[in-house]
Amino acid sequence: MGQEAFEQDYRWIANRLKQLRKEKGFNNYEHFAYELGMSRSAYWRLEKGANFEIRTLLRICKLLGITLQDFFTIPSDQTLDV
């Protein structure tokens, strides 16, 4: 499987990160990056679809107060555009 096959998944994850960040009241990604202990540019790359380690996603979920299952589950009354 080539890199291109994963691009849509990366974009989905990036959009989900942004959606959940905003739902938790972090309208500014810079404040969220600060709370995570990440540079603004490193977090910005995540929301743009960069590949990253699962430990980073686990840290994000912990800050958001959600599980990995919550992260990957979209309520039926919502949509997530890619």
How does this model look, in words?
This protein has 82 residues and is mainly alpha-helical. The chain has one domain: Orthogonal Bundle (434 Repressor (Amino-terminal Domain)). 65% of the residues lie in helices and 0% in strands. The protein has helices at 3-23, 29-36, 40-47, 54-64, 68-72.
Give a quick rundown of the structure:
The protein is mainly α and 82 residues long. The chain contains five helices and no strands. The radius of gyration is 12 Å and the shape is globular.
SSE inventory with pairings:
Layout: H1 3-23, H2 29-36, H3 40-47, H4 54-64, H5 68-72
- The fourth-level CATH homologous superfamily is lambda repressor-like DNA-binding domains
At CATH's second level, what is the architecture?
A: Orthogonal Bundle
Give average pLDDT, whole number: 90
- The whole-angstrom Rg is 12 Å
User: Which CATH C-level class is it?
Assistant: Mainly Alpha
Relative strand content = under 5%
Tally of structural domains: 1
Low-confidence stretches: none
Quantity of strands, as a count: 0
Return the CATH topology. 434 Repressor (Amino-terminal Domain)
Number of helices: 5
Structural class: mainly alpha
Give the proportion of residues in helices.
Answer: 55-70%
| Strand/helix succession | HHHHH
Main β-sheet, in a few words? none
Distance between the termini: 20 Å
